[in-house]
Amino acid sequence: MQRKPSTNGFTLLELLVAMAILTVVLGLVFTSMSQGVDMQRRTERDVSLDASLRRVSQIVTQDIRNSPYGLLTSVPYASNATGFSVTKATDTAVQNAVGPSSGFRTSTTTSVIAQTGFTWPTNTTYLLINPVQANATLLTTSSAVTSSGSINLPHGTQINTVCLTANTIVQRVVPIGIQYNESQRMLYRQVHRPDATETVPLAYGVTAFSVNYIGTNGTSYTTLDDLRAAGTQINRMELNFTMARTKGSGEQMRSLSTTVEVPKLFTLTSNPLKFVPAGATLSC
């Protein structure tokens, strides 16, 4: 007896319908996965950008907090709306300034009493501080000094500038500067050491950076010179950062603002020291 051919299976129409349904389902799954990947990428970019902002802010604010006496300077950069300079103490040792006894302000040498083992190389930067008038200036040695007792610290054509009193002291420091370059969209950090000057990019993609100097009178100033001209002293600094990263055909932006109390790591005076530019006129 001849068997009839089996009629079980799918017709061509059924296969086409099944393939169409499968294509729609796979399309939905792929779209969902693609959206999930895009969302993850956006989240990662957000987290990365926020983390970069926090990291840069922490480095900059730490430089301010490490500045002894709450002193802002103009070396290596002017302290203005797009940058500032501070000093970092290399040690806690200080030396008493004892001369020269006449013409101290215009002298290019500072005489100090140094302890045994005192050794400073050429290009050592130090603060010359008059605590009585709460003034300080920056000087750099023009030759190496290795001695003790009463010695001279020569500093080339730089003059002492501040006044000599029984409490005038010398302390070794390293100048540190933060500067924004708008055209490069870069934030730079420069460190002056005796053996080398190091300038490194601190952050890229910085679309805006600004500094406000808030005095003890509560008023905000855009430069340290403006604050000084107003006859007030620095109390805190307001730092504003904006960074961007490429996002498709546009940019992703993030901003952060922080306020830093200007510290006094050492209590020579009741207020932060005032930086005196070289050659400034002072009455002693």
UniProtKB/TrEMBL annotation:
Domain of life: Bacteria
Keyword annotations of the record: Cell outer membrane, Membrane, Periplasm, Transmembrane, Transmembrane helix
Record keyword DNA-binding present: no
Signal peptide positions on this chain: none
Main location: membrane
Transmembrane portions of the chain: 12-33
Compartments where located: Cell outer membrane; Periplasm
Keyword Cytoplasm: no
InterPro entries recorded: N_methyl_site, Pilin-like
Membrane topology reported for the UniProt record: Single-pass membrane protein
Name by which UniProt lists this protein: Type II secretion system protein J
Species of provenance: Deinococcus taklimakanensis
